Structure of N-acetylmuramoyl-L-alanine amidase:
Amino acid sequence: MAYETLTQYTAACYTSGRPYGITSITIHWWDDPSRHPTFEGAISTFTSGSRRTSAHYVAEAGRVACLVDPDDRAWACGDGVGRNSGGNDRSISIECNPRQSDGDYETIGELIRDLRGVYGDLPLHPHRHWTSTDCPGTYDLDRLDRIARGSAPAESAPRPETTAPTVLEVDGSCGPLTIRRWQEVMGTSVDGKISGQLVPDCRTYWRPALVDSCVTYGGYGSELIRRVQAQLGQGQDGLLGPGTIRAIQAHLGVAQDASFGPATVRALQTRLNENRF
């Protein structure tokens, strides 16, 4: 799979030049997945400079943002000590989607392959190689290396051209199959859940057709809903609230009552069965 390269972002914190050369690639993740981090959120952290850190790349399935030129020094690894010194000085940092989908692995593996084409056969290190951290969690660097070298099993890569999409029952219930299909169509991570929502109060966030087990709370917002809001020209807070529901209803051509109910979901399911939103 080819990935889209985004170059319109620049990290606030980095150091020009590489006096010691480049000797490795370091794999990070955006944050613990239980915190519901997003691609856009990771970019925002690095471009704002609020945490005095940066990375060369932010990557997920199909998208790679370059925030620091690899020929410059990002502030992602820590400098380490002894034999593990020089992380920031000599490594290229890739911040990865912590959800670790097959598509994430494929894109990151391709990025590693491309970097090695320019800088040589660089080894991969986890962030914890340089400093005391849990980052990058359970990321399988051997799998990334196999993909980069072209030896990963073919079945690990997405194959949309040969895999028939799920055909949804148009039943007006927004359960895991509907959400997964919605995520597939919108090109986001696929987990069958709308995450990071505000707790419903039966007035402003009324979603009667959304199955309870398919929504999580915490106020961080949903990657899926952000992508929907972007397509509809809405503010991208990731919350399935009344304004967003009305915009979805207008887009689908149903009554705009701000209730994410069965009629709205049936229209959504019909669109998704046509492989569109």
